[in-house]
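Posting this for the archive.
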Amino acid sequence: MENDTFLTIASASEGLYRDKGSKFMAFAYPVSNEEEIREKQESLRKKYFDARHHCFAWRLGVTGDRFRTGDDGEPSNTAGKPILGQIISFGLTDILVVVVRYFGGILLGTGGLIQAYKQASLEALTRAEIVSSVFAETCLIRFDYRNMNQVLKVVKDMKLECTDRCFENRCSLKVKVRRSLSAVLLHRLERIASVEMMA
């Protein structure tokens, strides 16, 4: 069976690291898409508008193969990469970590920066509650009104979460199905006349 479980954090957490007057404030958030990531980053930029740097790393998807890092003016690979390294070492995905730096006036050097961003991220992730989550896809099911009972029975039998519904001559349902069960759902729906399923 296809693996559709992954580790993430249950809720936001924070960490703090200081070195030679510089303050590194780390913020970790559970996220599910890039829009949510942008919102969190914008919120932090507004709140800590006077900080010198807002460095980050995020990772999305059940396999964690979608990721991005940002050094925000720090020397290349001294901030975003160490943050991502901590996310990977914890085995996490669907997560954003931002480290906000207030410069203390003394340069830390490449090694010092890498250590500081790594340590700040570690502080936030150590404080977080790590949870196992299930990757679910949203599917749109379209069907004729006369087949509604059959479709609803499949949805109920498979214990699917329904996020949107429309019952007219041509009906539609939006359901969340765990990735490993989407083929089963498609197979069961194909037995019902004039039913379409779109991921």
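Residues 135-198 form a domain with the Alpha-Beta Plaits fold (CATH 3.30.70.240). The radius of gyration is 22 Å.
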